[in-house]
Every structure is written in structure tokens, then in C-alpha cells.
Amino acid sequence: MATMDDSYKAAESILSEAKSHIEEIRSEEDAKVQIITRMLTECLGWEFADIHCERKHETGFSDYVLSDDGSPVLLIEAKRIGILSINTREPVNRRTLKLSGPGLTDVSDGIDQAASYATPNGMQIAILTDGIAWIVFKTFIPGENFRDKEAIVYPSSEAVLAGFEEFYDLLSKPQFSKKIYNSVFDPIHHQRLLLTNSLLPPIPESEIDISKKSDLAFDLERVFDVFFDRMKGDADPDLLVECFVETRESQIADYALEKLTAKILGNISPADSSIGEELAHLIEGAVEIEDGQTVFIVGPTGAGKTTFLDRFFKKTLSSVLRERCLDIRINCLDATGHRENVHSWLIEQIIASIEHHNFENGVPSYNELQGMYFSDYERRRIGVDAVLYINDKDKFKERFGQFLDERVSQDREGYLHRLVTDAVHNRKKLPVLIIDNTDEFKMEYKQDIFQLAQSIRRQAKHCVLIFPVTDKSAWAFSKTDMFSIYQSRSFFLPTPPPREVLRKRIDFIRQRLTEEDDRDIRQQYFTARGIRISIDDLDGFAHTLENVFVDQDYTSQTIGELSNYNIRRALRLCKRVITSSALRIEDLVISYASGEFLAPDYTKFMDALLKGDYEFFKKTEGHDIFPVYQADYKIKQSPLMNIRILALLKSIYDAAKTAEEKHLSVKSIFNYFDAMGCSEAAVDASLLNLIDAGLLEPYDPSNRHLLPTQKLAIAFSGIGHLRLATYNTSFFEQMAITTAIANHDVAKLIGGMAKSNEASADDSKSIRRTFWDYLSTEDSQFMQTPITTEYDCQRESVQKIERYAVNDEIGQAGDTIEYNAMPSEGVLYGDTAATIEWFDLEKGYGFANIDGIE
């Protein structure tokens, strides 16, 4: 993608060239072809496919409609040079002129014409231009007449170049997709959004030091580094296979299944059936009737799609069927990503895999090649080389060898087809082509791979294609005609609960550690300080991990939500907690060794999760914790903006019955907060930050742009953050200490209390109260909550924050009641209103809803 500097050079060249022969640019069409279209494509990054000309509207035909991801977003009304008369004394400078003011009186008809095309079609930005002068304006300002607002005007090419940074932010495709134009227009339309004061954190990140650890904790951290690396399974594929959590064991309600079923993959197998059994039946059918199939294994990142397939072919599929399958694995992470090379690369990968499986030493012999090219052999024996065959069979064989060498080396795709045909008809094998890790490539690249794979399947007529893909890729496929051309079967693989993944992996490692003959594994468990840890000690560490992360509901739920149930991210958070000085892992190990293990309470767990290796929470440390009270650095907004958006979408989520109902359109979100007096730019900034942080998810994961029609829902991470923000004093206190705020005096006051060497419980309470006073004061400047019922969630969320921020007497979410006996019928505890959702007697845990606690 071109940089802004590259775009500036392109604009300078185009405008200079136009100026040199301005007399020859006489008509509107001349201006469009020679200047406007070139500015859009060569300078501002729009593709020709994004540009639609002469579109019919009720009031006429528009000159340009620009689309982003298929949705119309920008309208341009073109005029011939000399028509646009802008009344300004400084034509070489960019100006802001009122649309109904004297400066634009002479072009008011063109403005009305552009607005009449744009407004009914939901396009918020319109442009009136002759290629030299550019008038850019918003067609919709909530609660106001757009004509009473200012346009951004570039009266000349000199003005465009002088103010090019803003021009680029307004109109380039990369910036337009991010809706940066709101940040440009809103300070003009709403002066209250100008950010006059910088934001200052009470304790800057540069002053947050690493916490000192004891020697034992330092040594143990090295052990857990090894332990958690092993739990990832990168160095032990058997761990991933053996510890795979079956789909039907998952208790996580992943509504992506419903979303995909309803909108894309209508043939997804029911959630209550075993994916492994269904896939085995499909392959068995392909073997028996010599059929071809295309299968999609769909699941979010972290669902274990690759592991599922490894386990399927090693354990689930019967040995009889396994022997009939030719397992061809292609990992697209090994590809260069260049479209011009994808076909040759994929063909070579498949050829290498088949040769490895089917031929001794990994290459076919002369006789085997002769068998694959037997039709050519016969044609030459009877035809062109018949005389040679009769007179000198050895010479004929040599010449046919040259023919084979030419065909094999020069026609690789043809050779691949011969290999597949040989596997199917001669060896009676079912080629199973698994193409993995295509998700991060562009759609065009995926289509090339998909089409080539389909051509191989059609050639073989007896082949199964398997594509493990994320829901994002599934959405992208659904928008292409190619997807609908070929019949396919699809299976959804939901993300398993981290609790069950951790339980299985800890048990697996514990079992490995007890294998007396596994010397290599024993030798891996040494600390950096040269202290040997015995197998018995490591078994104790495993028990410690299990007690902290498996047996405690509050830890597994919090980590699962914050990681959006991504196993690798959950493991990273687990390691962050267990190695944090705030948890004092040495105390846990000693207590386990003494036979009196005590799991950390929720406050200590949260301190460890938030602080990690540091004295205080550090935003840029590479974790999954988002500073939800942080206001935007460029746009003035309420520091509760993020919380208010999460509260709105959580209320939608709770009331919805279907996946689609859980989502709310961006336009509806804007309208909701507009009634509270909040600007679109302020909402924009928060939505983008929340999406990037994974607290919100788009209905269409392949489209992360904030188009009005885009729909958003709260993600598991958003639910977890909202719970912590409204119920947890530890979370609130760490945010108070590290969040950058506009009131510098308050920041210094909180910082002084936090740094005090004699900080007490009273100081902690003062920090929370001071921070709350700041939040409520700032929020009242930007937000007014209507009294209607749809805003109840806003009032409730603010009340919860205040209550838990300033009152120590109220318990925190995550506090648990210990019990020694299994639950029985009847009332277990008084003064508790809870509804049991699910309880597993064998595993000894379950889920309950408690009024007032999410």
C-alpha cells in the first residue's frame, strides 16, 4: 500500500500535468478522465472496482459513487473546470466555509444536487469538484441541518497540496475505511471536541518497575516457562492429539455456530453429533462409492482445527479406513503468498507428498512411470515409434524415457493428475487433500488455491478435500460465486473451555513426568540457575497449576473470557498469573508440600493477572487486558465511553434469542448515543479500539470497517471486561492508577497516593473515590442519559461502578463459598438468589446465575 508521501507525489504530478494543459480540459468528461479518476486511483488508493459512474437516482444520475467492501460510502459530483466559483480571498489555502454562506453561494445548486444523491443512499460524505477545486461536506449531522454546517474547501490545486495531509485523511480509501473523516469534521462542527489538554496517567509506564522476586520464585519461573511451553504442544504433537477436548464436552455457547448455519453453511452437522464420527462416515462413503467431497472444518481461532484433524487420522478413523486413505497435508504458511507462484507451489507440494507416501525412496521407478503413462506408451509403440519398437526395443525404451523426463519435468500439473489417477485406480487409495492455514491470505489467493484443489478433485473423481478455516474465511467464501458452484459439507468446531484443556494437558504432562524411562523429558526440567528440580517437585507444580486454574471457577472463567476462549492466549494469561510476584508462587508450592494447599483468593488472583511482573498494571505489556476507562488521546470523549458501549451491547446480547439479534448495527449505535449528546467521532474512536482489542466482534468477521450497515456484538472478552469494570475493586484501582486522564491535578493526586511507601487500605479507597469523582465529572460533560427504559443499562452500569468503586463493604464478583460435601437437594445457603444453569457431579463444578452478578 502506498504511503502518504507516495500519494502526495502522485497528486503533485497529476495536478501539475493538468495545470500545464488546462486549456485542453474543456468538458466535464475531460476533467473526470484526466484529473478526478486519476486522483482517486493513483493518489487516494481507490480501486477501479470501487468506482461506479453514472448511477441512476430518483433525482438524476450521479457522476461517481465510491464503494468500500460493496457498500456505497462516498459520492462525487463532477463539474467542468471554471464552473465552480468559490468566493474567497485566499484561493491557495484550505478553508472551512458554511454550506449556506456567501463563500459557496455560487455553487449551492451543485451542493444540493450532490446531497440529493448521497442522502437517500446513506452516504455521509459528498464532494463537489472539477478536479482542481474540491468541496467536501457531510450530508448528515444528527439533529441539525447539514446546510448550517461548514464544508472543507480546497479552492485550488495549490490548496490541495498545501493541506494534503488532511486531504488524504478525508478522502483516501485506507483512511476513509477507518472513518477518519469524522475526526476531521467533528472539531469543525462541534468545537467542544477540540482536545486542548493532554492526557496524563497518575503513574506513567516509564515509572512502573518490575517487581522484585525471591530466588526461589525466580527459579520456579524458569520451570514454569518450560512447563507452559510444553502445554502449548509445539514440541510435543502427542500432547495436542491426546489432550484434544471433544466438541460435545464443551459448555461454551458459541453462537458463531448459529450464525454460520443461518447465513453461510446451511449443512453444518448438528451440535449434538460427534464431528469425528460424521467425518468418518463421510470418508467411508467416499471410499465405498468412489465419490468426491469438499469439507470445511470451521471454527474460531484457537478451536484446534488442525489438532482435530491430526487426532482424527491417528485415533478416530478406523485402521481399515486409515489404510485406504492417502493423507496429503499442505501447510500454506510455507507459501510465499504471491499469486503468480501459488499454482506451481501447491502442485509441487502435493506431488512431493504423494511421491513420499506411494513410492520407495520417495520417487517413482521407470516401470512405475511407464504404468502411469501407459496410454502414451501404447500410442508411441503402435504409432510414431512403431518401427523403432520392432527393430530395437532398448532404443525405444530409452527414447520413451526421454519422453517421460520431458513430461514429468515440464508438465507438472499433468504429472500430478497421473499421480492422483495412479493412487485411485491402481493403488485403490482415497486421496484426502488437507489444505491448512489459508486464513491470513487475501481472498484472491484463497480462490486460486480452492479452484486448483477442485480441479484435482474433479480429475480424480474420487478425492476428499478438507479446508480448516476460521469463521472469517467462511464469511469471505460465502461472498464469492465460487463457493456456491461446488457442493460441500461443513462442520463447526467450537472452542473448548480452557478449564478442560488445562485439566487434560496438566494430567498428560504429569503422566509423562512419571515415566521412568523418559530421561530426555527429565533433563529438560532444569532452571537457568542450575538447580535441579525433581520429578516429585514437578508433580507438585502440576497439582499447583490444577488447583489454581482448574479447580477454581473464578480463575478459569475470567481467563477464558479475557482470552475470548483462545487456548494459546489463555495459556499466556495463566503463565502471567502463576509467575507474578503478586501471587507468590513459592507460598503455593510450600503450602502444597505441607499438605495444606490453599488456593489464592480472588483479590490475589486479580492482582497477579493485572500486574504480571510489574508493580502496577502496564497497558503495553502484551496481554489481553484492555484499559476500559481510557479516553481517546485525540478526540474529547467521556472516559466511560467504552463502558457505555459494552453495557448497551451486553443488554442486547442478554435479550436476544438468535445470533443476529445479538448484533446491533453501527448506525443504530450512533443514533443511540446521539440521543445522549455524544458525537459520532467519540463513538467511532471507541468502537474501533474495542474491535481491535477483541472486546467487540463484527457480524461479518471479514469486514472490520465501521460502515453504517455493519453489525457488532459484545465478545466474551467484552463481557469479562464489563464484569471487572463494574464489580471488581482490584481492577478499578489498577485502572485508576494507570489510566491517562485530562485533569492533571487529579492524576498527580492519585499518583502520589499510589507511590506512598506507607499506602494503606484508606489510601486505596481514596484512590478509587478520587478516580470515580473524576470519571463522573468528565462523563457529565459529554453524556446526558434519557429517562426512557432503553437507557436503563446505562444508568445501571454507572451505578455499579460507583458502588464498587467507593464501598469496601460490598463483595467482589468471583468471591466463592467453600464447601466440602457434594451439593444435595434443598436450600444450601440462605440470602442467596441463584439459578443453577448446569452442574457436573463427576467433575464437581457447574454454572449459576446470581441476580446482580453477571
- Describe the strand arrangement of the main beta sheet, using strand numbers: 1-2-3-5-6-7-4
- Percent of sequence in beta strands: 5-15%
- Quaternary organization: single chain
Structural class: alpha/beta
- Principal-axes geometry comes out as flat
| Range of helix content | 40-55%
End-to-end separation: 44 Å
Number of strands: 17
Average pLDDT, all residues: 78
What does this structure look like?
With 854 residues, the protein is an alpha/beta fold. The chain is built from 37 helices and 17 strands. The strands form four sheets. The chain has a seven-stranded mixed beta sheet with strand order 1-2-3-5-6-7-4, sandwiched between helices. A five-stranded parallel beta sheet has the order 9-10-11-8-12, with helices on both faces. A three-stranded antiparallel beta sheet has the order 13-15-14. Strand 10, helix 20 and strand 11 (464-469) form a beta-alpha-beta unit. The longest helix has 22 residues, at 761-782. The protein is flat, with a radius of gyration of 33 Å. Mean pLDDT is 78; it is low at 247-273, 516-535, 809-832 and 840-845.
